[in-house]
Amino acid sequence: MSSSLPKSYKAVVVDKADGPYTLKTVDLKQPSANEVLIKSLACGVCFTDVGMASGHFGDCFPCTPGHEVIGDIVSVGSNVTHLKNGDRVGGPWHGGHDGTCRQCQRSQFQLCDNQEANGLSRPGGFAEYVLLRAEAVVRVPKELDPAEVAPLLCAGVTVFNGIRKLHVEQGAIVAVQGLGGLGHLAVQYAKKMGYEVVALSTSDDKEEFAKKLGADHFINTKTKDVGAELMKLGGASIIVQTAPNPKAVSNLISGLAPLGTLLSLAPAGLVELDTVTLLTKAASVTGWASGHALDSEEAIKFASVHGVKCMIEKYPFDKVQEAVDSLKAGKPRFRNVLVF
């Protein structure tokens, strides 16, 4: 390891479920043969981080959250040949794969039987330095703002991948339920992909904002029958569910076009679904598990080329607790990002 690197650094450590996000001094470790060490520039704060720190992903404590980290490589493992010091890279949720299971053989690395997750099974990006497994590293153009790119490693790639992997022809109707961190990106990605976009929200106050993002139509799901309104437009080939409201999800099914798909991207728990409607329309419900390194690189490139912008609020690294509390209170517009 270079003599210019410090012997220790600051990292957020959560010692127990629902414990505080505490800054601690941690010894700096040299990367193993297949790892790289990065110096962090920015890291998004995601609801998954909050869920993990609350114990919803099991006993992973003590842990360092963070799976939307952007940084520059400062040390490279002996077996790593495709990356070098100075490269700007990202560490998303997908933190590593074995390369040998059936999913990996199909290039579905984010579904690996033995996958790792940054911020869960290995220390994440709420830290000044982070070790990343080289096979899962995302290459990031240096001309882009690290803070704006960071959320694309999770929210961005999730909506981008989820929509494109359904292989629906351009010109079809894509409805987006919710206009938060995921939803405001889903509207932009869908519009730039060539779809007719319908924004679904419970407040008329969101209509102007939705139209600015690129939505062609707006439906207030609290005052109108969302299914009937969508069918007046011809039915949605895809409905992207981004707000975790079980009752709201149930009401979406009737708005699907024949062969349409409800794409669930936000955990909503148990949901009642009208299977008669699913059968008569030959419709389906599916989820999507983020993406692997190349998926993230393509989501970032698409956003850069087509002007998809993640709206963020920046917090200094030492204000991590404020960033988390803001997220829990539903205040961000639209993603909180730690900057180093």
TrEMBL record:
Keyword Glycosyltransferase annotated: no
Occurrences of domain Enoyl reductase (ER) (ranges): 19-338
Iron-sulfur among keywords: no
Cofactor: Zn(2+)
Keywords for this protein: Metal-binding, NAD, Oxidoreductase, Zinc
Species assigned in the record: Pseudogymnoascus verrucosus
GO cellular component terms, semicolon-separated: cytoplasm
SUPFAM superfamilies registered for this protein in UniProt: GroES-like, NAD(P)-binding Rossmann-fold domains
PANTHER family named among the record's database cross-references: ALCOHOL DEHYDROGENASE 1-RELATED (PTHR42940), ALCOHOL DEHYDROGENASE-LIKE N-TERMINAL DOMAIN-CONTAINING PROTEIN (PTHR42940:SF7)
GO molecular function annotation: alcohol dehydrogenase (NAD+) activity; zinc ion binding
InterPro entries: ADH-like_C, ADH-like_N, ADH_Zn_CS, ER, GroES-like_sf, NAD(P)-bd_dom_sf
PROSITE patterns for this protein: ADH_ZINC
Superkingdom in the source lineage: Eukaryota
Stated family: Belongs to the zinc-containing alcohol dehydrogenase family.
Protein name, as recorded: Enoyl reductase (ER) domain-containing protein
